[in-house]
Request: fold
Amino acid sequence: MTSKPKKPAPATPPKGRLLLIPNTLDFGCLAEGPDAVLPDLRDVLPMGALTAASRLQHWVCENAKTTRAFLKRVDAILPLAAPLQALDIQALPRPNKGGEKSAKKTHMKPSDKPAPNPDAEIDALLAPALAGHDIGLMSEAGLPGVADPGAALVLAAHRLGVTVVPIAGPSSLVLALAASGLNGQSFAFVGYLPVDAIQRGDRIRELDQLSRRARQTQLVIETPYRNTALWSALTTHLQPDTWLSVSCGLTLEKGWSRTQRVSHWQKHALTLPDDIPTVFAWLSA
Reply:
């Protein structure tokens, strides 16, 4: 008696890719409403990025509303592969800002609920890729994963064997560094400085000393409404001979970048807007 041949196991579908789709740098800077005239995306994004965005049906982002607004602008140039309402747009999980204090407000002990598994939440967002579909990752501005919470999704993609494809586009940090004239061979992005004035001053002096020792450009950003406060702190606590550069509204019509020594800025103060993203960079002499 001959045994029946075993049926071959069903083939595993090839995995999709995680495409890092660049966004513009005009987030929060443009007029909104039905009569608003938005800049042409082709002025700041390559056609390759727009083509890739138009074909995707699965997205992960910081904010679904702003991603839909971006895709609406894409659709005006290249028709989307599916109606905007039919696209699968998922938001990245955000940490509980209240932590244990929030639990006390609701009369709930932190142990009453099992702690969420952040890896599981992130991994679930890659389900379409594991099923064979490409996914787009988008930041609120600039390149995903750079000064952006999307880095967690990119790392998960590597862990799960999903191919990551970065697509060229604007990065405010790189553009500011290039426009500053400061050391582009050695630089560090150190994010946000402390809000507390004393701690902020201590951190600025610490980074100024590091810049001097390593000949390394330091880059920081701030919430736009704190631009002036940070500028004042930098011109107060950096050494007079340190080169200080500010780049405001890069890629916008009236964007600019200026670099002078701190001693110059102390005599010629800049007026900074409180609603336009700005990058600050310095290099100690």
Summary: The longest strand covers residues 243-248. DSSP finds ten helices and ten strands in the chain. The radius of gyration is 23 Å.
